[in-house]
Amino acid sequence: MERTRTIDQADQADQADQEGQEGQEGQADQEDQIDQANQDAAGAAQVADTDRAADQADDDDEVAARLRVAVTRLNRRLRQESLAGLSPAQASALGTVKRLGSPTLGELAVTEQVQPPTVTRLVGSLEAAGLVAREVDPGDRRVTRVRITSEGRRTLHRMRTLKNAFLTRRLGGLAPEEQEAAGALVALLEHLVAEP
pTM to 2 decimals? Predict the structure, then answer.
């Protein structure tokens, strides 16, 4: 009887060990399933992050394109509103002469990104209108420099005044919250064009 009890106890111990091993195997399987589910979730999250990044890049590209077009159109409108009887090329050259001081014809051509014969014609037309004057360089008499005249300065001032007046009229037609947004936009644009 004692022996039967010992055999029964041994059987029970074996059965408990087997159940323990099956439980451990089941737990290990469950842990493997959890690990796999976590890996799947991480992969899905990575795919979602990549998709969000791609969507954000697309959004950024669209915003950049819209901004470029809007700024280009605004610049074109400002030029149209303020040419003061000058062609866009003449207005640009006049502004460049003022900014550079007294450039040579070659320096003006490089800055305006035009060929020398074109800049010679531009300066000739500006000179005929009394907006610029040609001067011989005192250091090298072979070199001709261009300087803006007082009439040229007045013309540039008038052009800037017309541009500001155009913008003031357009801003005045906006609702108060749009005017506030325009002010914030100006600060953002100034930040975008600031030197890095």
Answer: 0.59
